[in-house]
């Protein structure tokens, strides 16, 4: 029995004895008897105080709690009878209970994106306390730079254009050059919008990175407009938070009843989310926002969800609620690679999970190995004939392409090993390493697996993604009996994981019913029938646990008839970048850095230093960096300014490699954003 319980029992016994004595004689206990009651009472107060931790209170709160203890003991000492002691003890406990704890530690989660018909950049902020409870949510919007125009044209400063506005053609004088967050936006008459790094503004703002840069530049009053013909004079007062933020510029502040104005709609939507997020978020991911709301009409009636009046009347309710959900859930995508299906294929598992750990989407793909594709007949200097190739328990004759290249690796077929071999290691053994499995899979994905033809040249038309990916080559497309085909088994496996997560460690033969259907240990059917279900389940589970994302960025330069780009695998742990693998050109088929360029080696070295400088940074710090391109003749993605990359991550311009560094950063962004 605990000490506290013993002392409590003493108090009870003493008080009970006192009550009995009081009933038998008129005099209250005094002397030693009353002192024992008081001692037990003060001990009870001390023990009750042990239930409170100083870390849960502010300094003032902790002082108030200690005062309750001191005052309680003083009241016990002043008591003249057992009843007074009992009252003092209870009052002290009550006083301690009433001291308010410090507010729970909170975290803010933010999402940026286009809203309101893709015409504005929205920001959603969701506040979550230490217990994971949503306590607050807010919405705001930044109008685009086209929202602010000059009343009259100014030579060299504005561009006059006829544009369609609310169904009518009007003439406006747009400020030609606007700068924000390290980017330069230039008004373009051909597209009737601003171009940022050569692409239309709305195309750029589809990316969270650009949307965030615009909103935060507006919010911090750091948008500048070039207001001189020579481009040297800038004005930071023309486009600022007061003119561009809807929460400040009076946007839609006089609605026609019963429709609410902008601010009232923002508050109603946020309030609805805070009060209903626990049930709404799962419904959102299961059904999609377009299938959730009903009741709204053009006369400003409110939206409803699941019988609940949201209170909001704006037409684009789905946009705003989506932004709040994304801010709360912070969905992230990750991948895992490995041998599956009897170690005969390379699988890729993709998982999209929320910050709270809920799987909201998943995917499986398999790449067949090079032995899956054989020539119909022997080809001199191109194929190797294996007369004893093991196939489903039988020995068959096949004509395998002798040399296969991918990812900078060259494998040669061996009739002894019945497999492709490189430097004494078979391809299957080489693929046991997940990094190698990733290289092979992405090489297939990028159509960069080659055979060597009779002329000794690399031929990329034989082993393509269309022929090697099971989702494309018709693999097991016709199921037999109760067995499902490949595609349906993938769908069932993914569906099971989304609905049930990864509570089960593994699946064994005991999980397979006589019907062929696999059930988990709780008897829940997975719906899948493939024999190697556990391989796919474990790969999905690994993707869920590892947080490795793949991203790329590339573009075509017409003048050089080449694709330039980069693909990366980025590992994130607790919001911190812990690893970045830059996949080589042989995997992507693109150029990171022109091999013939005289400073190629120096650039490679500097790029490696740049990658190393990113390890240990937070995701937010990566997003805060700036990437731009040099203006290059013939490029389909025209660059920003002539100065090239400006202050990328504080590293400055990487000498002779500005475009390479920018592409790399953009690829990393896309990996983090799951693009």
How much helicity do the residues have? 25-40%
Strand order of the largest sheet: 10-9-8-7-11-12
Strand content: 25-35%
Report how far apart the termini are: 59 Å
C-alpha Rg (nearest Å): 34 Å
Count of distinct strands? 30
Walk me through what this model shows.
This protein is an alpha+beta fold. Helix content is about 35%, strand content about 25%. It is built from 19 helices and 30 strands. The strands form 8 sheets. The chain has a 6-stranded antiparallel beta sheet with strand order 10-9-8-7-11-12. A 6-stranded antiparallel beta sheet has the order 25-24-23-22-26-27. A hairpin with a 2-residue loop joins strand 7 and strand 8 (about 185-190). Helix 3 runs antiparallel to helix 4 (about 80-100) and helix 8 (about 260-285) packs across helix 9 (about 315-330). The longest helix is centred in the middle third of the chain and has 26 residues, at about 260-285. The radius of gyration is 34 Å and the shape is globular. The model is unreliable at about 1-30 and about 630-660 (pLDDT under 50).
């Amino acid at each position: 029995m605990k000490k506290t319980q013993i002392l409590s029992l003493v108090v009870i016994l003493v008080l009970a004895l006192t009550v009995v004595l009081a009933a038998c004689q008129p005099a209250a206990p005094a002397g030693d008897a009353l002192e024992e009651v008081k001692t037990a009472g003060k001990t009870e107060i001390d023990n009750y105080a042990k239930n409170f931790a100083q870390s849960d209170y502010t300094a003032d709160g902790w002082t108030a709690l200690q005062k309750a203890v001191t005052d309680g003991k003083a009241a016990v000492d002043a008591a003249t009878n057992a009843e007074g002691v009992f009252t003092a003890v209870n009052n002290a406990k009550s006083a301690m209970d009433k001291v308010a704890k410090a507010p729970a530690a909170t975290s803010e989660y933010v999402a940026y994106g286009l809203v309101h018909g893709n015409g504005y950049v929205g920001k959603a902020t969701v506040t979550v306390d230490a217990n994971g409870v949503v306590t607050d949510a807010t919405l705001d919007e930044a109008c685009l730079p086209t929202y602010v125009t000059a009343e009259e044209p100014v030579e060299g400063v504005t561009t006059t254009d006829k544009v369609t506005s609310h169904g009518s053609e009007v003439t406006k004088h747009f400020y030609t050059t606007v700068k924000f967050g390290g980017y330069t936006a230039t008004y373009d008459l051909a597209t009737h919008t601003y171009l940022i790094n050569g692409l239309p503004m709305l195309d750029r703002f589809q990316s969270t990175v650009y949307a965030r840069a615009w909103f935060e530049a507006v919010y911090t009053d750091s948008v500048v407009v070039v207001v001189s013909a020579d481009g040297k004079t800038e004005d930071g007062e023309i486009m600022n938070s007061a003119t561009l933020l809807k929460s400040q510029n009076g946007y839609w502040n006089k609605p026609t009843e019963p429709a609410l104005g902008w601010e009232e709609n923002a508050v109603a939507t946020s309030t609805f989310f805070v009060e209903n997020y626990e049930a709404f978020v799962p419904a959102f991911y299961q059904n999609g926002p377009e299938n959730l709301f009903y009741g709204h009409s053009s006369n400003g009636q409110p939206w409803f969800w699941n019988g609940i009046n949201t209170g909001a009347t704006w037409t684009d309710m789905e946009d705003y609620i989506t932004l709040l959900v994304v801010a709360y859930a912070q969905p992230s995508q990750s991948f895992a690679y490995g041998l599956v299906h009897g170690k005969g294929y390379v699988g890729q598992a993709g998982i999209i999970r929320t910050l709270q750990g809920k799987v909201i989407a998943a995917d499986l793909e398999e790449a067949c190995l090079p032995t899956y594709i054989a020539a119909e007949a022997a080809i001199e200097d191109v194929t190797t004939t294996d007369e004893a190739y093991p196939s489903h328990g039988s020995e068959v004759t096949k004509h395998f392409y002798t040399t296969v290249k991918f990812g900078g690796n060259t494998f040669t077929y061996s009739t002894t090993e019945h497999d492709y071999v490189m430097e004494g290691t078979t391809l299957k053994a080489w693929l046991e390493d997940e990094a190698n499995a990733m290289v092979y899979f992405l090489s297939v994905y990028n159509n960069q697996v080659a055979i060597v033809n009779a002329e000794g040249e690399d031929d990329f038309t034989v082993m393509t993604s269309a022929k090697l990916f099971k989702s494309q080559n018709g693999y097991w497309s016709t199921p037999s009996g109760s067995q499902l085909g490949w595609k349906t088994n993938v769908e069932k496996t993914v569906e099971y994981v989304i609905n049930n997560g990864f509570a089960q460690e593994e699946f064994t033969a005991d999980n397979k019913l006589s019907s062929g259907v696999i059930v988990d240990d709780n008897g829940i059917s997975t719906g899948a029938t493939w024999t190697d279900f556990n391989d796919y389940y474990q790969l999905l589970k690994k993707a869920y646990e590892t947080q490795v994302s793949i991203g790329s960025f590339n573009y075509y330069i017409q003048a050089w008839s080449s694709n330039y780009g980069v693909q990366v695998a980025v590992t994130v742990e607790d919001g911190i970048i812990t690893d970045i693998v830059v996949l080589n050109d042989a995997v992507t088929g693109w150029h990171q850095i022109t091999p013939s360029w005289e400073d190629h080696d120096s650039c490679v070295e500097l790029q490696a230093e740049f990658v190393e400088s990113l390890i240990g940074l937070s995701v937010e710090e990566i997003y805060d960096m700036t990437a731009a391109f040099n203006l290059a003749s013939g490029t389909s993605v025209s660059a920003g300014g002539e100065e090239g990359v400006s202050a990328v991550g504080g590293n400055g311009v990487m000498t002779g490699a500005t475009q390479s560094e920018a592409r790399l950063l953009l690829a990393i962004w896309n990996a983090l954003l799951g693009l």
